[in-house]
C-alpha cells in the first residue's frame, strides 16, 4: 500500500520548478525575488474577483543582456479537494506568455490539456479573462477550468501591482527578448 501511495504522489509531479524556469528563460539570468503586497495592493488584487492567500509573493525575473524578458510565478491552489501547481509566465507588458501545470493531485481525467492552456497566451488582465467570456471551460472538468483561470487572474493582478510599485528594468526590443 505504501508503494502505491508513493507512486501516486510521484505521478502528480509533472515537472519541477527548476525545469520549468530553464525552459521559460533559456539562456537568461534568473533572479528570485520575494515581494510583499501592502494592504491596498492586496485589496486591488482581490477586487479582480480572486482570492489572495498570502501577501508574500515570490517571483522569478528573467533578463538577457541586461534586459527584462519576463516574470514567472508559481501558483499552488486547490482544484476540488487536492492541490495543483501552475507556472504563469508573464511578459514585460503584463500579458501571459505561457501557462503550464507542474503538479496535479486530482484524478488525471480532470487534468487540463496543453491545448486548453494555450488559450491564455497573449491574454492580459481584463473582464474577458474569465470563463464564459474569453476562456472556454473544459467539459467534465469545470473545477479545473475555474481553478486555472482564477490562478492566472490572480497572478496577472499581482504582477500588475508589483510592476506599478517598482518599474521593471527596460524590456528587450520586440522579437528579441521574448521568454
Explained architecture:
With 179 residues, the protein is α+β, with helices and mostly antiparallel strands. It has one domain (2-165). It has 5 helices and 5 strands, in the order H-H-E-H-E-E-E-E-H-H. The chain has helices spanning 2-12, 17-24, 39-46, 114-117, 142-165, and strands at 29-36, 56-64, 67-78, 83-90, 96-104. A 5-stranded antiparallel β-sheet has the order 1-2-3-4-5, with helices on both faces. Strand 3 and strand 4 form a beta hairpin. Helix 3 packs antiparallel against helix 5 (142-165). The longest helix has 24 residues, at 142-165. The N and C termini lie far apart (43 Å).
Note the topology.
Layout: H1 2-12, H2 17-24, E1 29-36, H3 39-46, E2 56-64, E3 67-78, E4 83-90, E5 96-104, H4 114-117, H5 142-165
Antiparallel strand pairs: 1-2, 2-3, 3-4, 4-5
Key traits:
alpha+beta; 5-stranded antiparallel β-sheet; disordered N terminus
Amino acid at each position: 500500500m505504501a508503494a502505491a501511495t508513493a507512486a501516486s504522489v510521484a505521478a502528480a509531479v509533472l515537472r519541477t520548478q527548476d525545469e520549468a524556469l530553464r525552459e521559460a528563460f533559456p539562456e537568461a539570468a534568473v533572479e528570485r525575488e520575494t515581494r510583499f503586497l501592502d494592504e491596498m495592493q492586496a485589496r486591488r488584487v482581490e477586487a479582480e474577483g480572486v482570492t489572495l492567500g498570502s501577501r508574500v509573493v515570490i517571483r522569478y525575473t528573467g533578463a538577457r543582456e541586461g534586459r527584462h524578458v519576463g516574470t514567472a510565478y508559481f501558483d499552488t491552489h486547490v482544484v476540488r479537494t487536492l492541490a495543483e501547481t501552475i507556472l504563469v509566465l508573464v511578459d514585460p507588458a503584463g500579458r501571459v506568455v505561457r501557462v503550464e501545470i507542474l503538479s496535479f493531485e486530482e484524478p488525471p481525467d480532470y487534468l487540463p490539456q496543453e491545448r486548453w492552456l494555450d488559450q491564455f497566451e497573449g491574454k492580459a488582465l481584463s473582464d474577458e479573462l474569465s470563463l464564459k467570456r474569453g476562456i472556454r471551460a473544459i467539459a467534465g472538468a469545470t473545477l479545473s477550468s475555474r481553478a486555472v483561470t482564477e490562478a492566472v487572474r490572480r497572478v496577472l493582478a499581482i504582477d500588475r501591482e508589483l510592476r506599478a510599485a517598482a518599474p521593471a528594468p527596460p524590456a528587450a526590443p520586440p522579437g528579441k527578448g521574448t521568454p
